[in-house]
Amino acid sequence: xxxxxxxxxxxxxxxxxxxxxxxxxxxxxxxxxxxxxxxxxxxxxxxxxxxxxxxxxxxxxxxxxxxxxxxxxxxxxxxxxxxxxxxxxxxxxxxxxxxxxxxxxxxxxxxxxxxxxxxxxxxxxxxxxxxxxxxxxxxxxxxxxxxxxxxxxxxxxxxxxxxxxxxxxxxxxxxxxxxxxxxxxxxxxxxxxxxxxx
Length: 198
Fold this sequence. Notes:
Helices cover 27% and strands 30% of the residues. By secondary structure, the chain is an alpha/beta fold. It has one domain: Rossmann fold (3-Layer(aba) Sandwich). The protein starts with 11 loop residues before the first helix and ends with a strand. 32% of the residues are buried.
């Protein structure tokens, strides 16, 4: 091991400062729902993320049982140091394994790798396959890019989850899942949906 594995806890005061009560409640409701994804290694893609690492971390813990997770953050401007500081503030973890494009940290028996892809999420030609697609307010950018959603569906692994606050399309490979309406507070718009790839 390259560093000690501390106990993982999220600091409630920091979460309350970053997220409103309805969003926190929505993630907790998702954790209690029947929607899940169980794999030893999970990859989550979050385009147009800014420096937000809190929501994808919450999403992983609400949805999945995993040993290793990759969170792909994609945006025109990313600050790995700000994101690492936020993870450190949230968890108390102070040491990361760092490379040119990622941070890795461990807690308990889990490993999380944050991958930074700085650039236009819509035109990324080197996108890895993933198990969870998560977008929030990204519809503003993708609405004029008709090839983006088909590309994303193609890269989404079988059984994977497509989570969007603006589901404005139909696709034969995606089945919309039912969920308590409170979960929609994870998103930004009212047209929130969670779909699974068959």
